[in-house]
Automatic annotation (TrEMBL):
UniProt entry tagged with the keyword Cell membrane: no
Keyword Transferase: no
Subcellular location: Membrane
UniProt xrefs under InterPro entries: Tetraspanin/Peripherin, Tetraspanin_animals, Tetraspanin_CS, Tetraspanin_EC2_sf
Transmembrane annotation, as ranges: 12-36, 56-77, 84-108
Alphabetically ordered keywords of this record: Glycoprotein, Membrane, Transmembrane, Transmembrane helix
Protein name: Tetraspanin
Family: Belongs to the tetraspanin (TM4SF) family.
GO cellular component, as recorded: plasma membrane
CDD domains associated with the record: uroplakin_I_like_LEL (cd03156)
Membrane topology: Multi-pass membrane protein
Amino acid sequence: MEGDCLSCMKYLMFLFNFFIFLGGACLLGVGIWVIVDPTGFREIVAANPLLFTGAYIMLAMGAMLFLLGFLGCCGAIRENKCLLLFFFLFILLIFLVELSAAILAFIFRENLTREFFTKELKKHYLRNNDTDVFSSTWNSVMITFACCGVNGPEDFEAIPHLAHSSLEKVTPEACCQRELQSREGMFVDKEACLRGIERFQNQQ
C-alpha cells in the first residue's frame, strides 16, 4: 500500500511539474515576443520603465518556471534527491520574486490603471504621424489587434485632428476596420470610418 501511494505521488508530481514546464515555456515565449516584436511592442516597452521592467520580469519568470518544471519532472521520475532539492530551492526563489513583484505592483499601481493609459494616449498621441515613436507604436498595436484606443473611439475626441486631414474628425485611421489586420490590409470603408460610422470602426 505504501509503495502504491509513493508511486501515485511520484506520477502526480511529474504531471504537476509538466504543466509548470509548459506554462514556463509559454511565458518565456510571450516575454521574448514582447521584447523583440517588430510591430510595435518593443517601442512601447522601451518608452515606459515600468513596462520595460515588467517584460524582463516576465522573461525571467518564464525561464525559471521552465527550469523548475524540468527539474521537477526529472526529479520525480528518477527519484533523484539532488534534482528535487534544486526544485524546492527554485520554489522558494520564485515565491520571493512573486512577493517582490506584488510589492512593486502595489507601489506603482497608479501606473497600471486604464485611466493612466488613457491620459498618456490623449497627451502624446499624434494620430498618423509615423515619425513619432509613441504614435507609430499605438497605431501598430491598434491595427494588429483590431482595437481602438484604451476604451474605444471616444478616447480620441479630445485629440485635435491634423490640419491637412479635414476628413478625419475624431477617429484615427488606425481604428478603421480592415479586411486583413496589418498595415497592408485593405480598409473595409475608410471614408465611412473617418466620418464616425461605428460599424466600420474597431470598437474594442
